[in-house]
Amino acid sequence: LEKIKQKEPDVEALKKKVNEKDIIKDAHAIDFFASVGEQYPIVDEYEIPASYNIDMIVLMPVNAEKLFVYWELTDGLIKKKLKDSSPSEFTVKVFEVNLGAPKKKQEKEIYLFNTKDKVGSNYIDYPAALKPMVAKIGMMSNNTFIEILKAKPVSIPSFGVLGPDDSLWTRSIKDLPKGQVIKKTEKKVEAKKEEFVKELEVVKQILRVRTKDTEILNIFMEIFEKLKDVKDKKAKVMDLLKGFVDVRSKDIELLWLFLDLIEQARYMKTEKSAETIIQYFEEVQKKTDEDIGVSSEIFTNRQVN
Amino acid sequence: MIKGYWMPILHSHLPFVKHPEYDYFLEEHWLYEAMTETYIPLLMKMKKLELEETDFRLTISVTPPLAEMLTDKYLMSQYMKYLNKLIELSQKEINRLKNDGQLQSLALFYNKRFEEIKSFFTDFLDYNVLEGYKYFSDLGKLEIITCGATHGFLPLLRVNPKAVEVQIAVAVETHLKHFDRTPDGIWLPECAYYEDLDEILKEYGIKYFFTETHGLTKGKPTPQYMVYAPVHTLNGLAVFARDPESSNQVWSSKSGYPGNVVYRDFYRDIGYDLDLDYIKPYIDPGGNRVFTGLKYYKITGETEHKELYDPVAAFNKTKYHGKDFFNLRTQQIEELVGFMDRAPLIVSPYDAELFGHWWFEGPDFIYNVYNEFNKQDLIKPVTPGEYLSMYPQNQTICPTPSSWGEKGYYNVWLNTSNDWIYRHLHFMADKVQDLADKYFHIVDDGSKSYGLKERALNQLVRELLLAQSSDWAFLISRETAIEYSTKRTKEHISNFNALLKSILAESIDEKFLEMLEHKNSIFKDIDFRIYSEKYKYRIIKGK
Predict the structure, then answer these.
(1) Mutate which of B22, B194, B249, B395 to test chain A, going by most A C-beta atoms within 10 A?
(2) B4-12/B58-62 β-pairing
(3) Rounded average pLDDT over A33-52
């Protein structure tokens, strides 16, 4: 295929072309089947349980500005968690989760409501509902929240929040060599060199995101530096943070070096092609003693996670 | 020199509806109508294009419930009865209208059409619509992709990630069973995406999927080509997003093609127009009037008075609209070329059943669009596989959570009318997972109790999958077929709980189980162990 023009894409012009206001949504075929004709008289009646006698709290996003939470509490759990085994009211709290923040500040309360129901549900309006969230149900006692049950967090990976660099381009896994019509699901697609390369790029990308995290922390550090002169008590906190950022920066530096090493090692001869970075390392590890004289301890002591 | 590409995608889906307990069941007719008006006519048009040596490329998703229904012996035997009755009715109409030349010519038109559909179905397709898809796939003209096992709305099932995984795993296995190969692509149910879903898709060999427009345009970072080229996720899957312009052109309520006055009126049907005694053998035996498929009037305009339908004039209009669609794509690509350093791609996904069922002339329109594209070499229809082979290198972004439902997120499937469903679905998934782990190693000792338990566990998974179908929550939300959709959801929840109780009590009612296996017979070969973590290990390790 010939390229039309060798020039940078005009993103702003393309944005204007995607006129989303005009999108016809909801043109569902099933609507046209179901919306016509008299409704067939349903004679069957099915009973379903009102609750399941389990302990559960679930939080789900409805859209970018709304969340839905439902819960069910058993008497057993209430009795176990609270001194008062029949409280008149429960409190449901919703938190925005920021795993990049210090542990004690990872959960920011965004909403709370009280309920008398052991089994119930509610909608919550919040302008950033697609961010990582978690819900808890408990009881307020002397202005203290006593947690009974916590929902599984609706998690988003950090690179999903920050996004990769716009310069990251990768090869499609569709672009693997032909002839891979799989006859059985049980057989995993044989990994090819391209997959290795792609995986390497993903690792790089994650590292870039981690680096970005650290850059953000450095900005916080600068702010704290200024605060240090104002309040002496902040000094200790600042030192702790500084220590954390230093360690993290070194860690990232090491990881970058480690990645370079992987890339270098890729060009070394191995007996068979690797499917993953870990496998590749195992291959390299075997060859190191004889080929480059590197102690295998280096590799065994540093697991690739 | 090729300036750009057009990628049409037709999403073919109907929920699993099978009621062998009734001789006549209205909702079963969704399938028969879709076969007669969409699936078979579309394949007939493809065959025509092939015979006329007109090249075409099309991507079709065939959802697992649809594939299962199209190969279900009971449903297909019912379909033959349905088709024969249509032919009988059209013959009866030819006699009734013998003194009205214009109307009789329409009855003759329908009679000829139904006979042709029947002959194509029995001869060329050998009573199996899927054979047609396979035929054109083997010719390299059609790319068949899958969808969720029962069209489950994945972002709302992910509370238990295994529930999402099983929707994908069963979809891949069902695709393999019906098309002899695993799918490269997937049409996500309701086009609904959430972060990390690509990780699960990748595990099951899926290489590309589609999102709604804002799934990419609001992704991070903003894609350099917006929706006019695919991107990759961090897991390496390609993502194509809908072009709003070409969607609008067909389905805009103001300016869309199907609303043209010469096209057939969807609502005027002899099932409603004719004397009840005359039409009764061809509608619901209870006397409820339903559509028969014989419609004699055109849209005409915003008036109660409708003029007679003219099939020739309507076909000519599809030629005109086909050309118009092509011209506007050309114009669109000419504009885009100025902003891009590669040939732009226009991705146009539609619900397949809208072509033929809702828009009667839709298959003719598609046929004429391909004729227009075939006249030149500047813009070519393309499949995702072909495009990715030409452009393997793409920008990597994180698509944003989205769906193609109203407001672009999950509202339609989660609101005050249908939110009661999810408490049950999540409980059921957790329970099945527990049981799959617990009974993973049960061994066939030849005893009756073993056989019953395994069958009951398998049926448990079927009932869960059927309850997860997004169609029920959608229809409840839209207040269409609300009784049936509520009934279906409650039926599967109720069946599940009855089975669960009997499994836990070691007291399985064989007759009840047999009835469920016969009625809710989707995924005949399903193994309940698919819900276990150990099963995942088996798939990966090939054990």
Answers:
(1) B395
(2) parallel
(3) 71
Q: List the single residue in A with minimal CA-CA distance to B14.
A: A30
The CA-CA-CA angle for residues A4, A205, A282, to 5°, reads 115
**Can you give the pTM of this predicted structure?**
0.83
CB interface of A with B, residues 178-217, below 8 Å: 181-189, 195, 198, 201-202, 205-206
Which tens digit of pLDDT belongs to each residue from B192-250?
999 889 989 998 999 999 999 999 999 988 899 999 999 999 888 999 999 999 988 88
Based on the number of CB atoms within 10 Å of its own CB, is B208 exposed (0-12), middle (13-18) or buried (19 or more)? buried
CA distances to A256, A272, A297, B151 from A294, in Å: 19, 20, 8, 53
Choose among B531, B525, B471: nearest CA to B496. Answer: B531
B337 part of contact set with chain A, CB < 8 Å: yes
Name the B residues in 195-224 with CB < 8 Å from any A CB.
195-196, 202, 204-205, 207-208, 212-214, 217, 219-222, 224
DSSP B370-429: HHHHHT-SSEEE--HHHHHHH--EEEB-BPPSB-SSGGGSSGGGSSTTTTHHHHHHHHHH
Strand partners, B231: B239
Q: What is the pLDDT of residue A192?
A: 43
Residue of B322, B431, B348, B423 lying closest to B54 (CA atoms): B322
Q: Is A24 in Cβ contact with B253 (below 8 Å)?
A: yes
Asked if A40 lies within 8 A of B484 by C-beta distance, the reply is yes
Token digits of residue B466:
């059927």
pLDDT of residue B253: 65
Question: Higher confidence at residue A193 or residue B361?
Answer: B361
% helix, strand, coil for chain A, step of 5: 40, 20, 40
Query: Coil, helix or strand for A175?
Result: helix
Q: Considering only CB atoms, which chain B residues are within 8 Å of A186?
A: 538-539, 542-543
The C-alpha atoms of residue B416 and residue A270 are separated, in whole angstroms, by 60
Specify which residues B220 forms β-bridges with: B398
Measured CA to CA in angstroms, residue A241 lies from A213, A216, A232, A237 at distances of: 14, 12, 15, 6
Q: Burial code of B75-95, b = ≥16 C-beta within 10 A, e = fewer?
A: bbebbeebbeebbebbbbbbe
Identify the segments of chain B with pLDDT beneath 70: 253, 536-543
Cα separation of B205 and B182, whole Å? 8
Assign A276 a pLDDT band (cuts: 50, 70, 90). Answer: low
A50 touches B at CB < 8 Å: no
How many other C-beta atoms can be found within 10 angstroms of the C-beta atom of residue A290?
7
CB B291 within 8 A of CB A36: yes
Torsion sign (Cα): B434, B440, B446, B452: positive
Q: Which of B56, B29, B37 is nearest to B129 (CA)?
A: B37
**How far apart (Å, rounded) are the C-alpha atoms in residues B204 and B175?**
12
Asked if B539 lies within 8 A of A185 by C-beta distance, the reply is: yes
Sheet with B185-186: strands ordered across: B185-186, B208-211, B238-241, B231-232
Query: What tokens does B399 get?
Result: 């698509």
Least confident interval from A128-132, A214-218, A275-279, B62-66: A275-279
The distance of B7 to chain A (nearest Cα, Å) reads 16
CA distance A271 to chain B (A): 22
For residue A33, give the chain B residue with the closest CA: B30
Average pLDDT across chain A, whole number: 69
Q: Is-contact A154 B141, C-beta < 8 A?
A: no
Grade residue A274 by pLDDT with cuts at 50, 70 and 90.
low
